Amino acid sequence: MRPMRERPRRPRRPSRRVARAAAAVAVAVLGLVGAAGPRVAAEDAPGSSACVVPVFVDDDATLRAAYDGLRLGLEEASLPRACRRAPPTPDEGGWATVAREVVAEGVPFVVAMGPVSCARVAAAPFAGPAGRLPCVYVDVALSAGRVVAPEPPRVPLPCAVVRAEVGFERVGRVLRDLLPGRPVPAVRFPWVAPSPVAVTLRAGLEAAAGVRLVDDPSVPPDVVLDAPGGGEGSEPFSASLARATSLRVPVVSLDRGRFGQGAAVVVVPDAPLLGRVAAEAARRLVGGEGRDEPLRLSTRATETWVDLEAAAAEGLDPPVPFLARADRLRRARPVPTEAGR
Length: 341
Prior knowledge:
Elements: H1 16-36, E1 53-57, H2 61-76, E2 82-84, H3 92-105, E3 110-113, H4 115-123, E4 127-128, E5 131-132, E6 135-144, E7 147-149, E8 159-167, H5 168-178, E9 186-188, H6 196-209, E10 212-213, E11 223-226, H7 237-247, E12 251-253, E13 265-269, H8 271-286, E14 295-299, E15 302-307, H9 308-313, H10 320-325, E16 328-330
Helix pairs in contact: 2-8, 5-6
């Protein structure tokens, strides 16, 4: 007779009481894991528990993009989360109010982005029992060799001054790559008044960028350069754009906000990098630097954006190698066909 095989015994199912207890433990463990992980939010609401470091930002496209880089940099440095703040009113009284609120919250430092916010934060009473709060001042400037305009702001200690410098040397290379048949491009740098900043920029533009400035209206330029850092002496962008369109020459702008608004080429600072450099400055401020003299950091990295629709309207056909090196392209709108109308 064949020996009888024993059937494998099935494992006993746990009782309902044991199953419910195990489920409760699992839920508790998952809850602890979720609480320990970082919370990612698109934007913190002012006044929320996650909003720790106040950031005051001017209405500027580059600075708004730099704010996103700042938040990522602070998170990577294990520093408190930041969020944008604004005074209840834009006058001196409103800034005094928000300064008192910030000091009462016990924040470790303050960040100001843009010339208006930097000037307001520097003048406002951000002072607590242990002295003035450390502040990081962030701005964008134009440079030609050792000449930088506008000049760095004079701000109270402890502080860090972080700047993105768009060098005219870089602008000159962009112009020569854009116009390969023009080794010394003729540039119209429009202005309406000889402001000190505009005079400084014009003096450095020819030498640093290797271009020839054209002021005579009867001499057509190769390109119109829009530099918002010219201050009150700069011609309005709408006037520069209208003149360039009538002459069929391209507009090259150094303002991120001109992209999609008529500029054929835009040379802009690497805004996310600027924000990360500001976060590094904040880390060093918290570590004790910037007490005796301002901590100064800068970046000169830029990006080149090309608007093909604007280029076509201004009579420009960018070379293929130039387009291949561009960091961003905005394509022309398709022309509707008879069948699609």
